[in-house]
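Office hours follow-up: a student asked to see two folded examples consecutively, so here they are.
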Amino acid sequence: MDRFMRVAGVAEINPGKAKFIHLDGIGIAVFNAGGAFYALEDCCAKDGASLSAGLLVGTVVECPNDGARFYLPTGECIDPLTLRSVTSYRVRIEGD
């Protein structure tokens, strides 16, 4: 995805929460980590679970099924048992 699309207003995603978005056949989780917004592929690299339903701690999301952890800014997996990262998407905020 090389273009920006409006997916939500800032107030639609509370701090510490995520919103699932379906764009162009891809499931994307948009996270509000203390006012900073990040978007990741909404599919755990380990078991395919929805990351938007995961536990958000700072800038890390934990898979609700297997506990695999992913770094929001890059999608990098920080769980030593899961080697594959998830796709990270650029986020741009205009207004609110």
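And the second, which I mentioned at the end of office hours:
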Amino acid sequence: MATVRDVVSRALRRIGVAASDVPVDATDAANGLEALNSMLRGWEARGVYIGHDTDYTLNSTFETGLLPDRYRDPTTYLLAEALAIEYGRPLTMSLSKRISESWKTISANYLSPVNLDVDDGLKRMPSQRWGFWSGRR
């Protein structure tokens, strides 16, 4: 099972902050962890509800909570995007494409539509009589 540390380390490697043969230092790992928890909480504001009620630690298994292991790669790429912004790293075209695909994968499975409130004026059909004499308002 992958740990959150594995996800954070991989995201940092994707943007070139960490080398593949060197463990991620504590500061970068802490920054990555903070960015991951913030990102997961922020998904709710975008309508993606994964049940992220408790923040991860670096030693948490990734599967903790409602986000199964199959979403580890999409989460890693989305975290890489968040960290690239924080570290001022440019995104390559291929990484940008993977990030876009990752968000589509996550949102397709977790997006919850919000209730739509439609104005009464838009609900009226042309064939319906609306006015004082019809008794409707």
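Two things to take away from it. The chain has five helices and no strands. The mean pLDDT is 86.
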